[in-house]
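Box S2. Input/output pair 1.
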Amino acid sequence: MSSSSLLDQITTRLVALTGHADRLRAQLAEAEDNLDRLRVVEQVVKEIFAKQPGPEPAAATPAPVYQVALPADRAAQLLPGGRLIPFRHEATDVDLLPADYQALLAAVRSAQAPLPCKTICEQLGLSTQPGQVEGTRAKLNRLVERGWLRKTAAGAFALPS
């Protein structure tokens, strides 16, 4: 077998595997979008049922395994249900969000196109180490769940349409 034939086979295999990996990434992003939408729907349905009078649900909410001790000023900001980040329809202004969430929204708002999490970290001067990026991604996903942002199929973040 000649070296050019071997290189051709390697290139062909590389192209095929790259295409396969791209399809899997797209499927994963779609599944994550579906999960995000279901979480939002679940929260909306819970809110609707909470507003309707009726019998108490049979299953009690389990007690948390641990509780985080918040400073008094942060604890005073908690919304009903122990939430710090309000749903978009509950808020009159972005100023109700904590400063770090406001900064994330400002970074996305200043962009002309959806931004991946790592780019948002770079814009805000945060570390791009995996732990920092994942912590930021969790905050961005919380903003998606609460209606402040949307997440594209590719996993980038943008303002809601």
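Box S3. Input/output pair 2.
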Amino acid sequence: MNLGLLEHFLAAYETKSIGKAAVQLGLSQPALSKSIRKLETELDVPLFHRTTKGITPTPYADTLARRGQAIQADVHNSIVELQKLKRGEVGEARIGIAPALAPHFMPDVVARIAASHPSINLTVIEAMYEGVSQAVVRGELDFALTNLAPRGVDPDLTWRALFQDCFVVCCAKTHPLARKRKVQPAELLKYPWITPAREGLPWQRLADCFLAARCAPPRAMVETNSASVIMSLLQRGPFLTFVPRQIIQRDRRQAEAVEVNLEGMSMERAIVVLHRKGHGPTKAAQIVLDACEAVVLESGLYPEANES
């Protein structure tokens, strides 16, 4: 496929306007229209419905846009990688991470990379599954470290488990429940809560645990998926929260945050590595992956071996 034609198509697709796309590309409207019709002829499918009010993408255009964005990203990333290798640098890696990995796991990974490969340029994007997974599909990220979505993985992605994590109820070391030997679910309702987003699986699991104990689910004073916000708030009030155990592992050793001692209120989940199908990691991305696996082993997180 001609990359110039692909660029012209993507501009029209993103702006939903031949006129706006032509200005963006520095072309005349007739020239851009000719390019798009040439691409339609080459592919033998209609890409846009044309009306007096403008253009509307067809399902063929939606598919081509998803693939085309990835192709553009691949070309750009390859050029950048070659330029860096020419200068004797390892290159760059762009990864997405779940919020739970931001406080400790990713800083440990970056520290390891900085010590062994200081010339790497590393971009880290923190977002929930939908955000990082779609960025991997588009080729904007080399890979992502995240949890699996309940509805399954995008068909353009492949995954392998990195480690097994577990959501638990926790609090600050100064909390009244911090040193109690055995806590009953009803006691948890006496304190303010920081809960996961209500549309997510962790909240559903937490609510189910309370219902199983014949208690109403807690009312959230604060609802957030930000690990940094959660850990900061725990130090400022008698909050309880439901977070991945690995978030509090280091804080637990420093006695800043502790797991509440109760049974039956937890949720196992896998943290996985998401890749685009058919695309192996670059040299820089592989270095980051190797560092991730080393941190998993050193931190005592339970490694997994499943993949799809």
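Caption for Box S3: DSSP finds ten helices and twelve strands in the chain. The CA atoms of residues 31 and 126 lie 40 Å apart.
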